[in-house]
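Throughout this review, each integer encodes one residue's backbone shape. One record appears below.

===
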Amino acid sequence: MLNKDEQEARRKRAKERARRIVVHRAVSFEDAEQWDLAYWQAKTPQERLSALVDIHRDVEKVKRAKDDYEHHP
């Protein structure tokens, strides 16, 4: 269970993420691919690298959480 400070920090991070989220409703797979390509090509190399690092960190968090869950019944 999270304490009040942790809950507040989580809410703050969620609000920050919501402000950064960019969405697109694709009408086809081709449309989605074209939008995705244009989106990432518009980003700087630093932004693309930062996104990749964030994805790797998220994957590691999920792996750790899964391992913790499986080893602590």
